[in-house]
Amino acid sequence: MQVILLENVDKLGYKDDIVTVKNGYGRNFLIPKKKAIFASKTAKKVLAENLRQQVRKLEKIKKDAQTLANKLMNISLTIGAKTSSNGIIFGSITNIQIADELAKKGVQIERKLISIKEHIKEIGSYKATLRLHKDIVIDIPFEVIAE
Fold first, then answer.
1. Which NCBIfam families does the record associate with it?
2. Which ranges of the chain have pLDDT less than 50?
3. Distance of CA 67 to the CA centre of its chain
């Protein structure tokens, strides 16, 4: 079954993408939750016309994301956490703490755009992935230190 995504769906696609999904996933989850519509011929024509009209807007959004990515390349983050005597963190470091540190540096990023591949439970250096645009993905190094 082909559907047109109405919003970004993790591990599936981005808004206005035409993707193939299993029938049950499309009918029981994506379409009822208003995350997608069935990709009929008329829906595809409407999508093509909308995309033609949005080309300039999308180029500006991509340019802004690239500018932000260039700005973020020079930023290094240090996150303080309470630790035990042998360097293990009480709790863990999540995308919320990274978004807060970026906000302190003057860069507002939604925490949904930040992903960390591993669970951070110890002091050390790590990398977080920021998905600023569907074509622009950068890694930001950060260090976890004891408070």
1. L9
2. none
3. 17
